[in-house]
Amino acid sequence: MEQTGLPPASVELYGIPSPCITRTGESWVYWEPQVFPFKDKSLDKVATALDIELQPMIHHFYTTQLAGDMKAQFQEHTLSLIQVWNEDDFIRLQENLIGHLVTQKRLKLSPTLFIATLNSDLEMISLCNLTGEIIIEKFGSKERRVVSPDLVSFIQQLNPVIEPVE
């Protein structure tokens, strides 16, 4: 907003209802973050499904606000920070986290919770559920690299990437 005078915009979220939408363009929506409105402000269903305790910060990350995914730069990586857009999206997120954790358990990998996607389909940025560190992991493998000691430090190092809407 500081750079363009407009709120963030998304082509991908056009036509998908959300309390975040402030106005609609030809094929995009302008949006602003909103306070997370749902009663269930935790990922307890994910924890219960796998009988594990989740790092406390992951609950806050996904249940503080509704927003569109946000592009950012972290070190040499351009990423898309995963956010919750609406109630259906929150349900889908929990299902995807459960699926991710089940796959890791089956492959005997330590549990992680994804928080951002990278340009690569095989790599993602995740929170290590054992240590709280932020890692880049290769999906389905033991290949992991710590990039930040915790979620707060990671977020503080992000720089927004502003993409023009066509």
Automatic annotation (TrEMBL):
It comes from the Bacteria. Pfam families: Syd. Keywords: Cell inner membrane, Cell membrane, Membrane. GO terms for cellular component: cytoplasmic side of plasma membrane. The keyword Transmembrane helix does not apply. The keyword Cell membrane applies. This is SecY interacting protein Syd.
